[in-house]
Task: inverse folding
């Protein structure tokens, strides 16, 4: 099985491990909520710009980083790891992301460069691969659309942070 096919099933395994290793406290749940919601806000912003495989998104968050969806997911996972209040949970989450995200990002970059050769290269020259720049760069051609967020089914990911924090809260209650 390829690395790409393993990413989702092993994500569920990593999530279960984070919950099993969790020792959440009220402060960690609150801090994790803030970080996780920031990640989801980035994902919603990005989802409102992207039209997968049809047009290269270069506006909004795509003017700050070429991978705002991955950045948002990373922040969400960091928020959940923070909420877990366990260094082992944080290590597990970090290991998962390091195992899968760099290759996913490289693969997506190669796909987009081939699919949109005229616009990808100049955009990529001005916009960093992952860590965002503060000032926007590149052509900024895409515009945000709420309906696009729905078409991209971002609501599924938006449920992840509250659901994970609810499970972590329950785990904390069980641990006493």
Result:
């Amino acid at each position: 099985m390829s690395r790409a096919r393993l990413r989702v099933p092993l994500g569920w395994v990593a999530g279960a491990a984070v919950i099993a290793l969790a020792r959440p406290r009220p402060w960690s749940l609150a801090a994790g909520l803030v970080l996780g919601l920031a990640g989801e806000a980035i994902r919603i912003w990005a989802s409102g710009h992207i039209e997968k495989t049809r047009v290269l998104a270069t506006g909004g968050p795509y003017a700050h980083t070429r991978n705002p969806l991955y950045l948002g997911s990373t922040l969400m996972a960091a928020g959940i790891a923070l909420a877990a209040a366990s260094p082992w949970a944080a290590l597990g989450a970090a290991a998962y992301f390091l195992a899968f995200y760099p290759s996913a990002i490289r693969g997506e970059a190669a796909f987009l460069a081939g699919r949109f050769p005229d616009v990808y290269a100049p955009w990529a020259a001005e916009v960093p691969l992952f860590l965002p720049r503060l000032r926007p760069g590149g052509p900024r051609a895409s515009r945000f659309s709420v309906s696009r967020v729905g078409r991209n089914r971002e609501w599924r990911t938006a449920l992840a942070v509250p659901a994970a924090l609810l499970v972590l809260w329950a785990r904390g209650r069980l641990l006493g």
